Amino acid sequence: MFYFLLTLLILDAILLTTVVLLQSGKGGGLAAMGGGGGGASDSLFGSRQATTLLTKASWWLGGAFLVLAYIISLIAGPSATPESILSEGLAVPSATSPVVPEILDAPAETPASSGTAPAPAGEPDPASSGQ
């Protein structure tokens, strides 16, 4: 069913492209709005033209394209949409495991508060020898 609808969508897109390209232009485009020369019957975007077969076909094919695309998106479901790679980096921690930086988990070893550097291993500590 999915591939049948996809084939219809592709054929509709080809037909819609062909019908739109076959239509004649409506005039000078935006250049027709400036300057004089326009009669009272001209609207802001040009005069109203008769509806042709190509105009009706472009409306019907455009509507069919929208409907087919919507139906295909419903059939495909959320499994057809890949997850964003951004969601991997934004993982929210669970409520049972609090986020604690690793520095807080380290044992509390601080140097002496007197401001002196600790004695190297192998040499006696002058503060502990009583001198």
How far apart the termini lie comes to 93 Å
Number of strands: 0
Largest sheet: none
Protein structure class:
mainly alpha
SS strand fraction? under 5%
Walk me through the structure.
With 131 residues, the protein is mostly helical. The chain has 5 helices and no strands. It has helices at residues 2-22, 53-76, 86-89, 102-105, 126-129. α1 runs antiparallel to α2 (53-76). The protein is rod-shaped and about 105 Å long. The mean pLDDT is 72.
List keywords for this structure.
131 residues, single chain, rod-shaped, mainly alpha
Short summary of the structure?
The chain is mostly helical. It has helices spanning 2-22, 53-76, 86-89, 102-105, 126-129. It is built from five helices and no strands.
